[in-house]
Design brief:
150 residues; alpha/beta; Metallo-beta-lactamase, Chain A; six-stranded mixed sheet
Length: 150
């Protein structure tokens, strides 16, 4: 089994991120990068560099659902028909519309001023534009294993 590191840009302060392509059956991409034209273009180039194209991908495993790691999942699914796997704790983050990571009630109880809460909510909405919902994502649990041909 060969694993290739692919590097894609993000519009976030974290800078570029690493994705991993498991060159086995099924061809598996670990994380996808954010939903931006630049990230998609670079991902296509990175895949071509290692002898593949987006339509070859059969499985996507998301390590977590931050937009820089899951943003292109729906795009890849549309082009390749790949299955998307995400931890059960994170499933709702990519399968439910209008999910927010900002818990207004928790922040209010913690004493955060309402204008700060609204500012945080607005920032998250802008970040969330770098991902989209993935229909049919499959939840995995801590003890699950991913099987490959070799």
């Amino acid at each position: 089994m060969l694993i290739e590191k692919l590097v894609v840009p993000t519009p976030f302060p974290v800078g570029p991120i690493n994705l991993y392509l498991v060159k086995d059956d099924p061809l598996t991409l670990v994380d996808t990068g954010p939903k931006t034209e630049e990230a998609l273009s670079v991902l296509r180039s990175e895949l071509a560099r290692v002898g593949h194209q987006l339509s070859d991908i059969r499985r996507i495993i998301l390590t977590h659902t931050h937009e820089d790691h899951c943003g292109l999942a729906a795009t890849i699914v549309r082009e390749s028909g790949a299955e998307v796997h995400v931890h059960e704790w994170e499933l709702a983050n990519i399968t439910t519309a209008d999910v927010t990571r900002v818990s207004k009630s928790l922040l209010e109880r913690a004493g955060v001023p309402s204008d700060e809460i609204e500012d945080m909510s607005g920032r998250y909405k802008r970040i969330h534009n770098h991902a989209e919902m993935v229909e049919g994502a499959i939840a995995f649990r801590d003890e699950d294993e991913f099987v490959f041909a070799s």
